[in-house]
Specification:
2 helices, 3-stranded antiparallel sheet, Rubrerythrin, domain 2, binds zinc ion, alpha+beta
């Protein structure tokens, strides 16, 4: 299960929450109770935690992104479907 980092905009409290991907993001700060939580997205933070599957997940997400945007596909040599090991 992935960790998400949150920071409270009201009191500055920072914490990590373990949530399913499908869970809605948290809103209320556990410290002050204000609905001011901001989700922090930092790839470096994920790296620090060093979970093996984070990297896999990140890579697949990136590939998806490229395919969606259609950019950078000029040199399409058949690498679109992940059949070759160039990724
Ligand atoms: Zn707070």
């Amino acid at each position: 299960m992935p960790f998400y980092e949150y920071r409270c905009d009201a009191c500055g409290h920072e914490f990590e929450a373990m949530q399913k991907m499908s869970d809605a993001p948290l809103k209320e700060c556990p410290e002050c109770g204000e609905p001011k939580l901001v989700k922090l997205i930092s790839a470096s933070g994920f790296r620090l935690k060093g979970g093996g599957w984070y990297e896999t997940d990140f890579k697949s997400g990136k590939k998806k992104n490229l395919a969606d945007s259609g950019k950078g596909g000029s040199s399409s040599g058949g690498c679109g479907g992940g059949k070759c090991g160039c990724g």
